[in-house]
């Protein structure tokens, strides 16, 4: 195996959770060249992994929103770059029209995609001349690793290796290195995933009373207003300035704890080995959650967001990991923190 192309186009959390596939391939085929095709919005994150030789990107999302001529020209140029190499194998682990088109345009002997019943969009099937096996009974992230390993005939190590190397920030981020930072990722792209502001306030006060400095990131003006509203409920909490993704990653790396909704930056916190609690309200925890006993935990479920007591119990289950006390299970932890500060 000399050259491999991974196709995973979006979004932030999916891109982060695909990084272990690179490490798996690198172990199985040490001398292979590994390229990755993705939306330009997420290309830099892929470049944080030194196991990727070349990132092929185009502003697909940006063009869809703005229909800008320059973006269209960039897409055209990216097609030429994509076809400049011939791949031994192309693995489309996205499974929708846009990823299938990329896989089809790329020059490759074998183009792997999911079985029809496992595709995100069934019309994507036109692009493949080989298929992964039936989707394994596991979460989405391990499922990608199993699919590629089975198709290409190798075994992988159970513990995922994200192999992230953050570039240095281009400005002073003023991160307080002498504090126990807890970042609360309250923002999410879909309102249905949100957790009530008063709940965030209770969690923030509980953490602050235990010596954590609360940091509230945001990305849009609306999210900034929400962060300010939560900060008003938590004495001493700071609303961060607007950060790029890599700047936010540096804040995450400096944090002791991250609590947040099912969003890409919380997946990044898990990948960066931070103590992480991920909250689910509108998507499947079993399918899209993160888990590393004693360090990362996912709670809640589609249509059934967790209450404050369960979130506090989950925080204790990951922050207790530094002691000799065994971590409690995400969904069976007894809500020990009933006396919430109000």
TrEMBL record:
Example GO molecular function: ADP-heptose-lipopolysaccharide heptosyltransferase activity
GO cellular component, one term: plasma membrane
Pathway: Bacterial outer membrane biogenesis; LPS core biosynthesis
Top-rank taxon, per record: Bacteria
Membrane topology: Peripheral membrane protein
Biological process according to GO: lipopolysaccharide core region biosynthetic process
Subcellular compartments: Cell inner membrane
EC code: 2.4.99.23
Catalysed reactions, semicolon-separated: an alpha-Kdo-(2->4)-alpha-Kdo-(2->6)-lipid A + ADP-L-glycero-beta-D-manno-heptose = an L-alpha-D-Hep-(1->5)-[alpha-Kdo-(2->4)]-alpha-Kdo-(2->6)-lipid A + ADP + H(+)
UniProt keywords, alphabetically: Cell inner membrane, Cell membrane, Glycosyltransferase, Lipopolysaccharide biosynthesis, Membrane, Transferase
Protein family per UniProt: Belongs to the glycosyltransferase 9 family.
UniProt-recorded name of the protein: Lipopolysaccharide heptosyltransferase 1
